[in-house]
Amino acid sequence: MLVDGSVEGGPGVSTVVRPPWGNQPLGQACLVVTTPIRVTLRCGDARGAGDDGAVDSDSEFGAFLRGRRALLDPEVIGVVSHGRRRVPGLRREELAHLAGVSPTYYTRLEQGQSTGASDSVLDALSRALRLTPDERRHLHDLARPARTRPVSPRRWEAAGVATRQLVAAVDAVPMLVLNRRNDVLVWNPLAHALLAGHLRRDAPDHPDDRPNTLRMLFLDPHTRELYSAWADEARRAVAALRLTAGEHANDPALTNLIGDLVVHSDEFAALWAEHPVTSCSEGTKHYRHPSVGQLELAFTMTTTTDGSGHRLLALTAEPDSPSQHALRLLADTSAEHS
Fold first, then answer.
1. The pLDDT of residue 317
2. What is the Cα–Cα distance from 102 to 122, expressed in whole angstroms?
3. What is the pairing mode between strands 175-178 and 38-43?
4. CB 289 within 8 A of CB 330
5. Which residues are 173's β-sheet partners?
């Protein structure tokens, strides 16, 4: 099914869009194919050609291998070059040699023609590709058949009572609860004032129209202006989403979210194609709030222990810092208007 400009329905939906990056001619259509958590863009000839002239696979597993192989510098790895290299990174046979597998088998892995790679092979590939722990975990997730990963029951679409009470009890720290698709299930007044004062405070209470931090980041001009280091925040968000997508490959709502963002945000599509992967459980966020100015806040993302997979995001400022004073001012202002 071809749809112009949006992703409809569930897995298997395709959309014709403009290519947001690469060397495709301006205006040439791309086909967005959404299968369980795989969003594949094919531009021009739908058959496509890989970096070694082989036909591209729709496999996220193969795409991840190809992308990480292209990032390896032969000189740094200690591989002696013979002849002119047509593409960046290692050749397939070179990577296969480092991983201790046959070039034929490795080629089949990249082309998605060989499934069921053992843990020992995946670990060998991870070492050869010099993957981070998060990337190694992602590779293992992609190698697992999607059908073995059950979709969470619908009851987890609401935050638990204890979690809601915790968020409501905290008033000096912005705090919110997200599901794995980054829908906001609940936020306290300070988190609302900091992140989405232009939205209704009770917006998370409406399941059909909940705020989604990814949609806000890439599609909401107010949110874009809020982040003083927007490009860094966007890359971090996509990297975390990649890891989640590998873990939950048969979640149709997650598939639709990714496909929709690919269609409607060139910047998301470009980042998604780079295949960044990281857990992003803690770090620093920089805000430029329209009411209280600049804030530098440390964030911590923790997973709740009730089996829902929900994540609790807390944002804290250094004691007696300008950011803490700004948070206090924002809390006071928010209380006056509540």
1. 97
2. 14
3. unpaired
4. yes
5. none
206 backbone dihedrals φ, ψ, rounded to 5°: -110, 95
3-state SS, residue 70: helix
**Cα separation, 294 vs 286, whole angstroms:** 7
CA distance 125 to 98: 8
Dihedral sign for Cα 97, 273, 36, 56, please. Answer: negative
Q: Taking the model in full, what pTM does it have? A: 0.76
Express each pLDDT in 296-314 by its tens digit: 999 999 998 888 889 999 9
Give me 38's structure tokens.
């795989």
Nearest-angstrom CA–CA distance, 203 and 1: 33
How far is 292 from 194, CA to CA, in rounded Å?
Answer: 9
Record the tokens describing residue 1, joined without a space: 């099914």
3-state DSSP of 97-115? HHHCCCHHHHHHHHCCCCC
- Quickly list H helices, 155-281: 161-169, 189-195, 213-219, 221-226, 230-247, 252-264, 266-274
The first and second tokens of residue 11, run together, are 């897995």
Average pLDDT over residues 173-191: 96
pLDDT on residue 45: 35
* Residue 251 pLDDT class (50, 70, 90 cuts): confident
Q: Which residues contact 321 (CB under 8 A, 6 or more apart)?
A: 296
CA angle, corner 47, sides to 45 and 48, nearest 5? 75
Distance CA 113, CA 62 (A): 9
β-strand pairing of 14-17 with 2-4: parallel
Strand, helix or coil at 63? Answer: helix
Identify any residues that bridge with 284 across adjacent strands, giving them in sequence order: 298
